Amino acid sequence: MQFVQNNWPLILVMLVSGGMLVWPFVQKRLGPVREIGVMQATQLINRQNAVMLDVRETKDCEGGRVPNALHIPLSELAKRGSELGKYAGRPVIAYCDRGNQSRTAASALAKMGFADVHTLRGGVRAWSEAGLPLRKDG
């Protein structure tokens, strides 16, 4: 007990830093947005008619897009979000190049009222590396 009384600031720092390390994992589990892999994404597309949403900027799409994906760049999502209203009852899978921008987009979609929002782990690169097709525009 004497140890705890003499070292309470250190114990407090240990508990807070441990909580900060665990928080991202807890947030992923409890948050409205789920990160899924390529296999899960194809299952959602095939079984529940999920909508793939490409949130990359137009210049970043030169390598191709997932077939039938909607393209709304992250920078335009707030003003063009209403275009997605007709898909509100379907799962939405946001993706970007590697998965970073899609998390921001998915959070915005959840705030817009979309209940079933996912991000594609690894983005379009993971899709391509899995041997899945990409549609080249032009």
**Name given to the CATH homologous superfamily of the largest domain:** Rhodanese-like domain
Could you state the oligomeric state of the chains shown?
single chain
**Number of separate domains:** 2
SSE series: HHEHEEHEHEH
Shape, per Cα inertia axes: elongated
Which structural category do the helix and sheet elements fall into?
A: alpha/beta
CATH architecture of the largest domain: 3-Layer(aba) Sandwich
Count of distinct strands: 5
First-last Cα distance: 72 Å
Q: How large is the count of helical segments?
A: 6
Radius of gyration: 19 Å
Major sheet: arrangement of strands:
1-5-4-2-3
Mean pLDDT rating: 87
Helix content: 40-55%
DSSP strand (E) fraction?
5-15%
Low-confidence stretches: none
Short summary:
The chain is of the alpha/beta class. Helices cover 45% and strands 13% of the residues. It has a five-stranded parallel beta sheet with strand order 1-5-4-2-3.
Task: State the main characteristics.
about 140 residues; alpha/beta; Oxidized Rhodanese, domain 1; 2 domains; 5-stranded parallel β-sheet; 6 helices; 5 strands
Secondary structure layout:
Elements lengths: L1 H5 L1 H23 L2 E4 L1 H11 L2 E4 L15 E2 L5 H4 L11 E4 L4 H12 L5 E4 L2 H7 L9
Parallel strand pairs: 1-5, 2-3, 2-4, 4-5
Write structural notes for this entry.
- There is one protein chain.
- The chain is elongated.
- The chain is 45% helix and 13% strand.
- The N and C termini lie far apart (72 Å).
- It has helices at 2-6, 8-30, 38-48, 77-80, 100-111, 123-129, and strands spanning 33-36, 51-54, 70-71, 92-95, 117-120.
- The chain has two domains: 1-30; 32-129, Rhodanese-like domain (Oxidized Rhodanese, domain 1, 3-Layer(aba) Sandwich).
- The chain has six helices and five strands.
- With 138 residues, it is an alpha/beta fold.
